[in-house]
């Protein structure tokens, strides 16, 4: 039964917060938006067009504490005093995906989470479902928010990229098909620097699933298998793995020789890895997850096969830019943690000049040390403080140079590269020291390559 709220407050006026506010307004609720920082002009315009009141550059505590429902944007941590006060007062606090879920009607949901590969898998699955003619939208951490889609243009299917932050504040959200790709340390500052808290958060994707729902898990991931050994979860588990021997059920996806197998409801669908548009071992996991999800959504094998071969991949995620005088340039600006860099290096077949650096989140560069020693010819640092990179690799890599712009980094990398090499931008860090965001960093990188 739909609950009645007289006073809804949305904290944060980004894509998620605005979506939640618009949905509340369209459903007839009184709603107010409060952001501790400045609100971007296009988001202000959205709120004004919907007749939604808002404040920026600070919170009016009394007004917020008077709310009977608070929808919290995922970027706001629990340690903020206002959140502590709301919790202490017993206020109902939910995330935007929880709010949207309450109004999704009979629509079906595939929710995808993991430390790496979420965006690629979400985009690929959306492409598979859309190409097969389903009424589907791609929402969440990628593109438009779930709530805004529900408010403005609801669809029969939602493919949602969800982060651990969004899952932290769900109270009923459930996906008919959930996907958990992998778990590696990330965002630990939000989880009291305890990896086990982050793992629990990722598994909240299954918190409200039933026995009739499905959870697709990468059972090659040690943290996932460790969690399963000590915790019971309700949904039917379908596994993806590199080895058929690891497959615990008759259903699931695995790699054998140079083929990907998708086994579902007694049928074994086989695809050559050479027919997959996405290359690299990490993308085999992403493709297996998307493929088994598509089969579970009722998509025919022929459509899946066709879409796998034509999918073009994501901008800023292992995106081929150009070949300049025998040197390939690849933009992996979305690689903002070291696990992403590991995956990127693992998929490289040529010697690499690696562009690394940015706003460091306390990286332990030993995570990529073996691959750097094996594959990297030179490192070009692109950040304000490059000392941690120098310290980590000074005894391993002969050429380490510092740059402070995309253009300088590209020029330096090009001068260090030899014919047949690849220049890989995979920073392993956030972009906020020199760029607006990872998209801006990737765009500037591509522009600099084209100017060579």
UniProtKB/TrEMBL annotation:
Residues annotated as domain Mur ligase C-terminal: 316-427
Catalysis: reaction(s): UDP-N-acetyl-alpha-D-muramoyl-L-alanine + D-glutamate + ATP = UDP-N-acetyl-alpha-D-muramoyl-L-alanyl-D-glutamate + ADP + phosphate + H(+)
Binding site for ATP: 114-120
Highest taxon listed in the record's lineage: Bacteria
Alphabetically ordered keywords of this record: ATP-binding, Cell cycle, Cell division, Cell shape, Cell wall biogenesis/degradation, Cytoplasm, Ligase, Nucleotide-binding, Peptidoglycan synthesis
Annotated localization: Cytoplasm
EC numbers: 6.3.2.9
A GO molecular-function descriptor: UDP-N-acetylmuramoylalanine-D-glutamate ligase activity
EC top class named in words: ligase
The protein's annotated pathway: Cell wall biogenesis; peptidoglycan biosynthesis
Cellular component per GO, a single term: cytoplasm
Domain Mur ligase central: 112-292
Family matches, as InterPro entries: Mur-like_cat_sf (IPR036565), Mur_ligase_C (IPR004101), Mur_ligase_C_dom_sf (IPR036615), Mur_ligase_cen (IPR013221), MurD (IPR005762)
One annotated GO biological process: regulation of cell shape
Family: Belongs to the MurCDEF family.
HAMAP family reported in the protein's UniProt record: MurD
Record's function text: Cell wall formation. Catalyzes the addition of glutamate to the nucleotide precursor UDP-N-acetylmuramoyl-L-alanine (UMA).
Name the record gives this protein: UDP-N-acetylmuramoylalanine--D-glutamate ligase
Organism from which the protein derives: Taibaiella chishuiensis
